[in-house]
Amino acid sequence: MLSEKMQEALNAQVNLEFFASYQYLAMAAYFEAENLLGLANWMHVQSQEENGHAMKFYRYIHDRRGRVLLRQIQEPKTEWASPLEAFQDALRHEQKVTAAINKLVDLAIAESDHATHSFLRWFVDEQVEEEANVDKVIQDLKRVGDSTQGLFMLDRELAGRQPEAEEEDEAE
Ligand code: FEO
Residue 167: CB within 6 Å of ligand 1? Predict the structure, then answer.
């Protein structure tokens, strides 16, 4: 069984992951409206991945005979001055998620909850990748600068992003 405190903390993470999914979908919609369909695809895939993260927590809470309590999801931001600004927001969000995961690990250690500690390992590793993926696009956007042609090329490249295999398996 999960402690009350751990259950509450895991439920807060479910909410944060669903918010991430919603926020990335809002970014996808922004890019779609700007006719940057590759950037929109990248965000759409990211939104799906976040949904997968939320569901991993959802399933884990129930596997430990806990109770999932879905709460109101914060309204996402919908406008940005540039693609770079949107991706910088995304990085800030990922850093916030990393800090939240680290706090969950701290709590698991403090409670000697080995199962939760083990479950969280995947997320610790995933956050390294999540931050790196967003940062890669930020670096590309900085290099592109004001070049319309550069943005066009980057947009085409990001159109090729596919959902990760694991997230597809999760849906089974
Ligand atoms: Fe689920 Fe991007 O953190």
Answer: no
